[in-house]
Amino acid sequence: MPSLKPAVAEIRLAVRSALAELAEGSTVVVALSGGADSLALAAATAFEASKRRMPVTSVTVDHGLQDASAEVAARAARIAAGLGIEALVVRVDVDGDGGPEAAARAARYRVLRDAAADVGASAVLLGHTLDDQAETVLLGLARGSGAASLQGMAPAREDEDGLRWLRPLLGVRRETTREFCTASALDPWDDPHNLDDRFARVRVRETVLPVLEAELGPGIAEALARTAEQLREDAEAFDDMIHETIEDIVEHAEAGISVSVAALAANPAALRNRIIRFVVDSEFGVSLTRTQTVEVARLVTDWTGQGPIDLPGCSAVRRGGQLVFTASAR
User: tRNA(Ile)-lysidine/2-thiocytidine synthase N-terminal domain spans which residues (predicted)?
Assistant: First the structure.
């Protein structure tokens, strides 16, 4: 028998490891754009899932943002069907806040979530690679978004409905997915947006990372991915500490929630700030910026009688020994 190409073996192993987290016979959804990354993921999933009697459905989202997008989506679905996968194409209208990229992403995840519910899937598989992770970390660093952004994308997470979102290829280089497609006689689609330098991610991919590799030596993408993994481990440890602490220091207040000033003051700044952000996010659905968080923390560490601090969706004020967060009037 001919030997298995290294790229095929690497990606199949990555998918096999991800599917091992699911019960045998579970249905899975694969997000399929038709590009090399998602095509390699779909093909490897079709191969590995068949051995565990796991039905696979591919979902291709036609955002309608490019000429011939319907033909591109239909072509991806035909390839998936040829792999023995049930293939769905869903057309969406892209609109909303944050520009076309953010709106397209929100629409895509909404479609994937709905499709998973329709077919009774336990997990959605996404084709993000190590290169995507490195780009995400660099963009987060450039924007000063803090540790949450520098953690990049999680290889696995579970949403509030119990649906698992898996990224089996997060440790695989992008070039490996192309090698997989070549070895498997798959013809991937090349998204022209991936070469459009109007997008910051494209500039990072085509200019910034190559310059870093040239000036600092090879291995930059792997180093950035390792950084994301380490920060994610730290964040998980902090989250565990917050959940252990928060039940003892938080009380419900009229139209809001309150936190013990003494307990916040007893914690180091990193944990104190995380508790503040966690309380506001969980109670009011608002993500505080670094500046807003530090200003609220001053009510604990540097209080001189200052009044309420207006925040998105709520306000914070110190009353006696409590830091009280109250919903803003609508």
Answer: 28-206
Q: Is 276 within a domain? A: yes
37 a known binding residue? yes
- Hey, what are 236's tokens? 């998980």
CATH number at residue 122: 3.40.50.620
Instruction: Look over the chain and give the mean of its residue pLDDT values, rounded to a whole number.
Output: 90
Residue 32 has pLDDT above 90, yes or no: yes
Q: Is 33 annotated as a binding residue?
A: yes
Look at the pTM and tell me if it is higher than 0.90. no
User: What sign does the dihedral 242-243-248-252 (CA atoms) show?
Assistant: positive
CA distance 151 to 235: 8
pLDDT band for position 99 (cuts 50, 70, 90): low
Q: What is the pLDDT of residues 184-216, one digit of tens each?
A: 999 999 888 788 888 888 999 999 999 999 999
In a domain, 12, yes or no: yes
Instruction: Give residue for tokens 């450039």.
Output: 142
Q: Are residues 184 and 50 in the same domain?
A: yes
Say how many domains are in the chain: 2
Three-state SS string over 98-161 comes to: CHHHHHHHHHHHHHHHHHHHHHCCCEEECCCCHHHHHHHHHHHHHHCCCHHHHCCCCCEEECCC
Contact indicator for 279, 325 with CB cutoff of 8 Å: yes
- H or E segment and range at residue 322: strand 322-327
Instruction: Say if residue 313 carries a ligand binding annotation.
Output: no
Residue-number span of the structural domain to which 279 is assigned: 254-327
The pLDDT of residue 195: 81
Given a cut of 80, whether residue 21 has pLDDT beyond it is: yes
* Residue 320 in marked binding region: no
CA distance linking residue 310 with residue 257, whole number of Å? 15
Mean pLDDT of 15-29: 96
Give the domain-ending residue among 200, 223, 246: 223
